[in-house]
Amino acid sequence: MARSKKISVDRRGFLKGAAAGAAALVVKPEAAKAQEAAEARRPATPTPLPGAKQTAAETTPPPHVDVWTTDRPGSDFMVDVIKKLGFEYVAANPGSAFRGIHESLINYGGNKMPELLTCCHEESSVAMAHGYFKIEGKPMLVMAHGTVGLQHASMAIYNAYADRVPLYLLLGNIQDGAWRRSDVEWAHSVQDAASMVRDYTKWDDSPVSLGGFAESAIRAYKIAMTPPMEPVVIVADAVLQEEPIPEADRGRLQIPKLTLASPPAGDYGAVKQAAKMLVDAENPVIVAGRVARTPEGIDLLVQLAETLQAGVIDRHLRMNFPTAHPLYGAGSVGSADVVLGLELPDLWQVTHTQTPVNRFGMEAKRITKPGAKVITIFAGDLFGKSNYQDFGRYDEVDLAIAADAQATLPLLIEECRKLITADRKAAIAQRGAKLAEVSRRNRQNDIEQAAWGWDASPITTARMAAELWNQIKTEDWSLVSDVTFVSWWPRRLWDFDKPYHFIGGHGAYGVGYGAPAAVGAALANKKHGRISVNIQCDGDLNYAPGVLWTAAHHRIPMLNIMHNNRAYHQELMYVEDMAARAKRGVEHAKIGTAIEDPNINYALMAKAYGMYSDGPIENPNDLGPAIKRAIEVVKKGEPAMIDVITQPR
Amino acid sequence: MKLLLLAATLATTAGLMAQTPAGDAANGKKLFLRDGCYECHGYAGQGGRDGARIAVIGLNAQGLIRYVRAPAGQMPAYTAQVISDQELTDIHAYLQSLPKAKPAKDIPLLNAMEKK
Q1: Residue A498 sits in the same domain as residue A568
Q2: pLDDT of residue A68
Q3: Looking at the domain assignment, is residue B2 inside a domain?
Q4: Would A14 be classed as within a structural domain?
């Protein structure tokens, strides 16, 4: 049928007309007023009586049509399951594939236990859950789109996997093509959603019924929380979410009971053997990875170290050992006759040193003494995947106990105590006194070293750490960021002794973890009234700065101190290294690695996201007062940011 | 014998000193920044996670040159094609001109840590 040119309006034409109409309204207000006045002067005409069609429409009952309403969507039952798991929060960037659960959470679930956190990027959602776990000790739920959302989230999931953190991901997907509304939903659907992250998750399932959802959801939680703890994924089909719960199922749907598995403890014979090796050793050393899972883990490690009077080398992966303890940082792998590695993912790096001698390889040298014995207690020996290589290089050990270290420590301590004779006790005490002196000297050296560049601008990371400590040392504080990129200064100068004082690092060094992990950890600290401190790297923040808004929106109190060294500094050093090896152009290393010209003003950025801010601060003498002002804001329950122009490391 | 050894040492030292031109600290600062020494060692030469403290070091210029040509640990070797002996001598002069650290006991925040 031919279309009338008169009424056919193409998009361009319509827009043109609309624009002209709008322009007319804007530029001819006087003409419009004159028109209104003319209308007002026109004589009134009588109102016509309603016609038969209108009368019928107003008086006859509406015809029966199918409409999409339900009093009990499947997503309500999914929320029942979620509530049973006890999640306190759910982090999500909204996505159509889980819109059913979203609505059920906020209306049916009352937006409580869990409360929905509005995130601006799935990478932020996941890293927030990562940081939250390391303070709270239980997972935060993360919801994401099964395709594009998971793609955004994947790097953060890998970080958590490498950091042995039990993420709990709920993905939305429309499995059946006939139910997809549009080309968008076809593009946003996937045959096997979890496949993309299966290499770095512990378990996943895509249940096809609500009963199956309940079982898989409970099972996933149990698997995630059994050491070695790792991320899990459940795919919630959108049809199951949005369709009503079948009448037949309403009475019989059940949520299974959750019983967490006890963590695996070491084999008795192997633990006895380890105890004998440690007690007989003249100079044992303990190297701590991700040892302490709970506050009890710190106490147990202290007990073991004190029983043996062995030095503890902490790899800064968890809050394992008090930094002011006389055995902290004392002892060395190179001088030990027995090395005890506890939950160490990188044992080979501990027992070797590397020197770059050629372009493609490293010269590796074992640093343990000839004849030195190595014992490991490592839950990682119970689980492994092959594709991603976070398991590190294979190392030779003398006794490998495949078990959770914290769960094994009580037995190990007991066996060591049984074996220590009075003679050994005296020798062990003597060793402890020497190690305490080493630890004291280390601390003194750190303090002396912190004085170098004290008044320099850019501000040294040592000065920044010292100024922070001066303001927080009398507060109940929590460092919710890594220390690797600030030369470990907080760990060298502050007194860490409580479980929440430190959360370790990224896991897989995937940049973009820092800011959201800090927000998640600070959220966990919120109900305890702790002052959360985040030393925030500039490169990291720029991956997904929207998390600042999330912190402001949800009133998450935290002090963010920008470590603004204006570069992707690790890469800057690598490029410099490559240029030196190639014997050319070291002066060009900043190309592609520096974050300057223009410099980013993080104080303004934070302000734009609704956060209190100060800086940029370049004079080290201005830093202490700025921190003091910001802490007052944090104490009122708000986040704050101080932009500090810093030295590279 | 001892006297002979001492004389030989002094002669070698004198020879080295004669070969070592004086350093230009101002140019050394420019090179320190241009060539990225600060990346690992800090703008104040204070050192850090990735490099040792190099402000006011015990090495003389020859010692610095020798080290930079064949360093230990993670530091890459910088050949004369990348940075000349004279440039390293200038950098050495700059490093020696940097202020020494105050004793920690004279810095109240650090002194408070010492007293713990």
Answers
A1: yes
A2: 72
A3: no
A4: no
Q: Is the pLDDT of residue A446 over 60?
A: yes
Q: Do B48 and A587 touch (CB under 8 A)?
A: no
Please state the rounded mean pLDDT for residues A429-437: 97
Contact between A131 and A564 under an 8 Å Cβ cutoff? The reply is: no
DSSP state string for A214-235: HHHHHHHHHHHHSSSP--EEEE
Residue A12 lies in a domain: no
- Cβ contact A124:A546 at 8 Å: yes
ipTM of the complex: 0.85
* Cα of A348 to nearest chain B Cα, Å: 17
A413 inside domain: yes
Give the mean pLDDT of A437-445. Answer: 96
Burial-class residue A536 by CB neighbours within 10 Å (0-12, 13-18, 19+).
buried
Indicate if the alpha-carbon torsion angle A387, A390, A392, A394 is positive or negative: negative
- What CATH number should be reported for the domain holding residue B73? 1.10.760.10
**Residue A451 identity:** A
- CB of A259 within 8 A of CB of A228? no
Q: Are residues A593 and A641 in the same domain?
A: yes
B55 contacts A453? CB cut-off 8 A: yes
Averaged over A246-268, what is the pLDDT?
A: 95
Supply the DSSP string of A133-195, one letter for each residue.
HHHHSSPPEEEEETTHHHHHHHHHHHHHHHTT---EEEEEE--SGGG--SHHHHHT--SSGGG
Nearest-CB residue to B44 (from A452, A466, A576): A452
Structure tokens belonging to residue B58: 């015990």
Q: What is the mean pLDDT of residues A516-540?
A: 98
A256 located within any domain: no
Quote the tokens at residue A333: 């792998």
Domain extent, residue A484, equals 451-645
| Tally of domains within chain A | 3
Q: Is A356 in Cβ contact with B48 (below 8 Å)?
A: no
Q: Is the pLDDT of residue A26 over 70?
A: no
Residues A225 and A335 in one domain: no
User: The whole model's pTM is what?
Assistant: 0.89
The mean pLDDT value of chain A amounts to: 91
Q: Is A444 on the interface with B (CB under 8 A)?
A: yes
Residue A586: closest C-alpha in chain B: B35
Q: Domain containing B38: what range?
A: 25-100
* Statement to judge: residues A90 and A226 lie in one domain: yes
Q: Give the A window 313-332 contacts with B, CB below 8 Å.
A: 324
Nearest CA to CA, how far is B73 from chain A (Å)?
6
